Amino acid sequence: MENQQNVEQAQKVTGFSDNKLITALKSVQRRQWAWYACNLVFWGAVFIGMGAGHVTQKWFWFPVYAAFFLTFSPLSTDNFTFFKGKLSEDSDKQLSSFGYLTCSSFVTWVFAKSIYNSAKLGASYGIVGGLAYSAWYSSFTCVSVVIYRLRLKGYKSLPEAINDKYGPMACISFMLAIVYRLYQEVWSNQIVVASFYGVFGEKSWWLAVALTIITPALYVLVGGMRASMVSDVWQCLFEVALLIGVLGTIGTVLHSNHWPNIFTWNPKPGVEMYSLKGGIDVLIVGLLQGGFSYGFFDPVLTDRAFLAEPKTMVKSYFVGGCLATLFIIFYSLVGIFGNMAYKLDPRAKLFPKIKGGEVSAVAAYLGPDAYAAVNILMLASSLSVLDSTMSSCAKLFGPELYGFIKNGRPTKLMDASQTEVWIGRLGLIVIAIVGTLTLKGESNAFNATSVSGTTVAGLGPPIIMLEFMQGYNPLAFHIPFWFGICMGIAFQIASSNPQWAVMNGFKVGYGGSSLLLGVNIFVIVVAFGLTYIFSFEHSLRNRDVSGFSPVTACDVKVADEEEKNEKSLQC
């Protein structure tokens, strides 16, 4: 039954007859077996060479990971597999789609950068820091509900919906913003993994940076979205097992040393934990960005929301979002533990960065076994989001950007050509190179979330209000979107130049993120207001200054028809 459904799907995609299709499928199977054989020979030679060269254990994880996923990644020979991951919208495949989509949505938001940021916030604010970072995961609810409504209206992607309601300039502006986000995902996740392999800027550090991006890029080049989603399922299992192991080790140390309760530990004695100074300001920022804008700035999240049957997608995002939120709170315990160890154990002073929740420092303090486990965990979580980033790059550069340039609108994924598949592959290579070169100057992974989230705070309101838009309203997108970007740039300038007092009036409270909080509240409220005001652009454009509708060609045609009908009735 399943084979018959696969054949029917393949016929729908390729347009081949039965005989031609069987020949094509046999050809694909032969190529797949040849691919297995080549990988076996190549990776066997790599491991023999590394063993002969006495390479340290931690460097083996890269080829192990690459060998496994590159070997078993399905070869994508059509647009349905490469861009849609073979997740159809047929109701009889809901269970399979639910499993893939739940694992994928969950694991792509439990990535190296998020683990790193959550641990750092945990070290700064205790459990409030973990709750604060988990607030960004409200994006799952916002994105799934909004895109569910858009899909019921027949839209197949966000660029398509934006192009329809706000016009081509709005569409291209949105896609360029997404290019910027994908580029950020590359360097911010590379930094975290590289911290396990050397000091910033060293040769070993740069080698780890290169391997971190080359590994997922290879198997996504081969298998596209399907390879990314298959790897997500395995990565999900890895991360669950490794998290249990790491938390078990931490629990053993806490119990044997009779240290205080990790959930009530306050890294800042004298500061109330549940206050704006204690990290609640960051939590509110996370809720604002996650609930209204940040999710739409993540193509990995929005792309998957257009896969599978709409109701199945919503269920998958609910389960995946809840799991990801819990996991990121648990990961903050790593940073809290590091802060505790620094203050309670003199031996921890040998690892200076442990005080600030540096994950690699905490792992080194826990011993070689824990260090190896955390190393694998960070590698798996980093590569899981990077392969998803690569698949989103391919979709963006291929059918969306190239389709927009060629046809004036994004191409629907089911209509994508082989040319667009290859342009997508070229696009992911370009973004991998550009993102890596950024590391010559940037080293703060948290900037990729908080600062960029503020810059695009004006993006959410126009997208949230898409389904309510009547007619064609370009300004309802552009005014709030560019207003948010200008405010985000002003915030970045003020953050890097404390003496620049122009933005001080936006501060809310006295916490460390008072300016961040104030700017986000202001931008989101104003952006919703601007979107609402300019949503009347369509109706205003169709009226002249005296309040009478201008005569259009359509009106003349209707008037002529009415006149003819009148004459025929008189006759």
What order do the helices and strands come in, and which of them pair?
Blueprint: H1 2-14, H2 18-52, H3 61-72, H4 79-84, H5 94-107, H6 112-125, H7 127-134, H8 139-152, H9 158-166, H10 168-194, H11 203-257, H12 276-292, H13 299-304, H14 310-344, H15 359-366, H16 368-407, H17 418-437, H18 450-455, H19 460-464, H20 475-496, H21 514-534, H22 537-541, H23 553-570
Helix pairs in contact: 2-3, 3-11, 5-11, 5-14, 6-7, 6-14, 7-12, 7-14, 8-12, 8-14, 9-10, 10-11, 10-16, 10-17, 11-14, 11-16, 11-17, 12-21, 15-16, 16-17, 20-21
Per CATH, the architecture of the largest domain is Up-down Bundle
Strand tally is 0
DSSP helical segment count: 23
Q: Let me know the average pLDDT.
A: 82
In oligomeric terms, what are we looking at? single chain
Helix content: over 70%
Mind describing the biggest β-sheet? none
The gyration radius over C-alpha positions equals 26 Å
Pattern of helices and strands: HHHHHHHHHHHHHHHHHHHHHHH
Instruction: Name the structural class.
Output: mainly alpha
Name the poorly predicted regions.
10-17, 544-571
CATH topology of the largest domain: Sodium/glucose cotransporter
Highest CATH level, the class of the largest domain: Mainly Alpha
Integer count of domains: 2
